[in-house]
Write a structure and sequence with these properties.
The structure holds two protein chains of two kinds.
Chain A: E1 2-6, E2 9-12, E3 17-26, E4 29-35, E5 44-47, E6 52-55, E7 57-62, H1 75-84, E8 87-92, H2 103-116, E9 120-125, H3 139-145, E10 149-151, H4 160-169, E11 177-179, H5 184-187, E12 192-193, H6 196-201, E13 205-206, H7 208-225, E14 229-231, H8 237-249, E15 253-257, H9 259-263, H10 285-297, E16 302-303, H11 312-315, H12 332-341, H13 347-354, H14 356-361, E17 377-387, E18 406-416, E19 419-422
Parallel strand pairs in A: 1-5, 2-6, 7-8, 8-9, 9-10, 10-11, 11-14, 12-13, 14-15, 15-16
Antiparallel strand pairs in A: 1-3, 2-3, 3-4, 6-17, 17-18, 18-19
Helix pairs in contact in A: 2-3, 4-7, 7-8, 8-10
Chain B: H1 15-33, E1 46-51, H2 57-68, E2 72-77, H3 89-98, E3 103-108, H4 113-120, E4 124-130, H5 136-150, E5 157-161, H6 168-179, E6 183-187, E7 203-205, H7 208-212, E8 217-220, H8 226-229, H9 236-243, H10 247-250, E9 258-260, H11 273-276, H12 283-302
Parallel strand pairs in B: 1-2, 1-3, 3-4, 5-6, 5-8, 6-7, 8-9
Helix pairs in contact in B: 1-5, 1-12, 2-12, 5-6, 5-12
Classes of the chains: A alpha/beta, B alpha/beta.
Chain lengths: 424, 306
């Protein structure tokens, strides 16, 4: 079965392409690229008029919740949500139940994803057994089973020696160690950013320093060991500064931020809306500015979603006891487009940070329209306006702070390993 | 006058609304001085006290305020309720509404709980203290007490000493006092000072001597004893040495300054007994005024059109 995508503006930073081209897909692979109107005959034609045609997006930071929390999300619903958002590859964090610290769990995720997953799923294994921060997991076995990176996400590795060992030992396999930077003593009991707004609301604050002291520590350990450090969900100006300085010294570090850290500030919490409760917390205008600058100058390599779906009941309650997290897959690209609108990034840079760069960090053959690559493609109408409606999310998690937001840029079709999904 | 069905905090009130409550409370204070201390306006209405934190004076004060207005008052005791069986706050609140309550007086350790209830319930919500956010009726009774002694609030200097970071009483008083034109000073160790408090228009002091100088009103706050355990302070003794209100220190304030405390007091921690029981103390008067102010709040909210 051959499919030809016509009339779209093809943008692929990995091939340095931006222009009207035609893409021929055969089966699950990209067969060939052709100039406008020069494509060969095919069994089927997709008319991408008025749309951009880009590599399927790659999310380095997703919580699929399965096994263990199927009432929040499943591999099936999470991957469908990914596709709806233009993502064709998701890397799922290990804080499931049981935790993904053994090949049994990794194999379960891989098998389930093959059977029920709508897009490609790459498991991230735990750094330490039980995410307890005490003993390293068996990296070799986990990698063999399918893990492509390691993280105790949701929790930091508090013990600096264990973090050192993780960064050292992982060098054997050349895999990234993804760090959730949070000093748990400094953040203890906190539910939002510490500052004037937390004082006004009477909510316990999480100081920026809770993130920054751990970023500083991990950068020092990365420098010491030469391991591959990736810093998850950067939220503060200080973290951006630390990473920028480290990169200038040649430290082997990459970093990510998420759309909510460049779209929202703690000011928006004034209504005690628990859908704004996220960890790390929404910071201030100054931080948002620094995050944008970091994205612009390359300090922050990629945009991930930190898609953290939750059940309605876990959010519809007291702010203190509501859970942390934002359901992010279905709004990420449109929110990223705001950066383009604001002149922070150009379209090519945005696509780079959401496709080929995360693919490179994870060493996966994704995020490209190169011939013989998997046919992972997103077709997006940049100009179509829409209003975010969480009730229409394919994710089980309707917990978005962006409900009702007027955004631009709709994903019209997503092709995952050759399979075509239409959304409108 | 009043548009909201709820009293969630002082932050959202206008000076006019605050004065309206205080004026209404004056009338009820007269009622409390009578031999027969009961009037009929809330007959047939039901007030439910829903307290998730221990309280003696606030709960009793609301109970009496409701009864003086002829309302039926029910005290919902969390320890013997379905909350112990794992019922959520939301379901508990919806149940109370369905039982026919007209008011829920809520106290909860989590900031924003009254706001949450006001969104999911149609009946009136009165905040009786939420986390470190607000305790509006306490501030109203404090304002009432200050006004009855000083005739007006505008132009007064009020010093608030204590655990500002964790104090909903301090927050509500800061809003109320600044709205009515008082100058507010907050005095406490830096570990107990919340971030950005100066942006609320208050002056920050770490020295009690400097802070209470020439003050017209001195408000001491209860220091929760667990603050020492959590490392905010080296010891309660040191706290008393640095921040305890003693007769010696009180001399630095104006001669006719009044001393207030929202209770319950820790004698010898934040306040010396000599001051607490001394001639400048209005602490017990605050308690009495609390009933009048809460009657005013119930009365006014009952009249708000839905």
């Amino acid at each position: 079965m051959k499919t030809l995508i016509k009339n779209g503006r093809v943008i692929d930073p990995s091939l340095n392409i931006d222009g009207y081209k035609e893409i021929l897909i055969e089966g699950s692979k990209i067969k060939s690229l052709h100039p406008k109107n020069k494509g060969p005959k095919s069994d089927r034609v997709i008319d991408a008029s008025g749309c951009i045609v880009i590599p399927g997006l790659v999310d380095m930071h997703t919580h699929l919740r399965e096994p263990g929390f199927e009432y929040k999300e499943t591999i099936k619903t999470g991957t469908l949500s990914a596709l709806k958002g233009g993502f064709t590859s998701v890397c799922c964090m290990p804080n499931t139940n049981p935790i993904n610290d053994s090949i049994t769990v990794t194999e379960y995720i891989i098998e389930k994803a093959l059977k029920e997953g709508a897009c490609t799923v790459y498991p991230i294994g735990a750094i330490t057994k039980g995410q307890n921060g005490e003993a390293l997991t068996e990296l070799e076995a986990l990698i063999k089973a399918g893990c492509i990176a390691f993280s105790d996400d949701g929790k930091p590795v508090i013990n600096s020696l264990i973090m050192r060992r993780a960064l050292e030992y992982s060098k054997i396999f050349d895999v990234p160690v993804i760090s959730h930077c949070e000093d748990l003593k400094l953040s203890e009991g906190g539910v939002m950013n510490e500052g004037f707004v937390s004082t006004i609301l009477g909510l316990k604050g999480i100081p920026k320093a809770a993130e920054e002291v751990m970023v500083a520590r991990d950068l020092a350990l990365c420098e010491l060991t030469g391991g591959r450090l990736h810093i998850a969900h950067v939220s503060t100006e200080g973290s951006v500064k630390l990473i920028k300085e480290a990169k200038a010294r040649g430290v082997n570090v990459t970093s990510e931020t998420c759309p909510h850290y460049f779209c929202l500030t703690d000011e928006s919490l004034k209504s005690y809306n628990t859908n704004l409760k996220v960890n790390p917390p929404l910071r201030t205008e100054k931080d948002v500015k620094a995050i944008k600058q970091g994205l612009k100058d390359g300090t922050i390599d990629i945009i991930a979603t930190d898609h953290a779906p939750h059940h309605f009941d876990d959010k519809n309650k007291e702010f203190d006891t509501a859970v942390f997290g934002i359901s992010g897959l279905e709004t990420a690209f449109a929110l990223g487009l705001q950066l383009v609108e604001q002149g922070v990034l150009n379209l090519k840079q945005l696509i780079t940070k959401m496709s080929i760069t995360p693919a490179k960090i994870m060493r996966i053959k994704k995020g490209t329209l190169a011939v013989n690559a998997d046919a992972d493609i997103a077709i997006i109408d940049l100009n179509k306006k829409f209003v975010v409606d969480s009730s229409k999310f394919l994710s089980k998690g309707k917990n978005t702070p962006f409900d009702g937001f007027h955004l631009k840029g709709t994903v019209e079709k997503t092709i995952s390993v050759g399979k075509i999904h239409e959304w409108t | 006058m009043f548009k909201s069905k709820d009293l969630l905090g002082i932050k959202d009130l206008t000076p006019k609304e605050i004065n309206f409550i205080l004026d209404t409370a004056s009338g009820f204070k007269d009622v409390l001085a009578r031999d027969i201390k009961k009037v009929p306006p809330l007959r047939g209405k039901t007030v439910v006290n829903l307290f998730f934190e221990p309280s003696t004076r606030t709960r009793t004060s609301f109970t009496l305020a409701g009864k003086r207005l002829s309302a039926d008052v029910v005290n919902f005791s969390v320890n013997t309720s379905s909350v112990v069986k794992g019922e959520t706050l939301k379901d508990t609140a919806l149940t109370i509404q369905s039982l026919g309550a007209d008011f829920i007086v809520i106290r909860h350790a989590s900031s924003g709980v009254p706001h949450f209830l006001s969104k999911i319930l149609n009946i009136s919500i009165i905040n009786a203290g939420d986390g470190a956010n607000e305790h509006p009726t306490q501030a109203l009774l404090d304002l009432f007490t200050i006004r009855s002694h000083k005739k007006k609030i505008n132009g007064l200097t009020v010093a608030i000493i204590g655990d500002i970071a964790h104090s909903r009483v301090a927050k509500s008083n800061i809003y109320g006092l600044t709205k009515l034109g008082a100058k507010v000073r907050v005095i406490c160790p830096p570990t107990l000072m919340p971030a950005g408090i100066d942006k609320l228009g208050v002056d920050v002091f770490h020295s009690i001597e400097q802070g209470i100088k020439n003050a017209d009103v001195i408000m001491t706050l209860r220091l929760q004893l667990e603050r020492q355990v959590k490392g905010f302070l080296p010891s309660l003794e040191e706290y008393f040495k640095l921040y305890g209100l003693t007769a010696e220190r009180l001399k630095l304030a104006r001669d006719n300054a009044i001393v207030m405390h929202p209770g319950p007091m820790n004698r010898g921690v934040e306040i010396d007994s000599e001051v607490a029981d001394g001639p400048q103390s209005v602490i017990l008067e605050q308690v009495t005024n609390g009933i009048a102010v809460r009657m005013a709040v119930l009365y006014i909210l009952a009249g708000v059109r839905r």
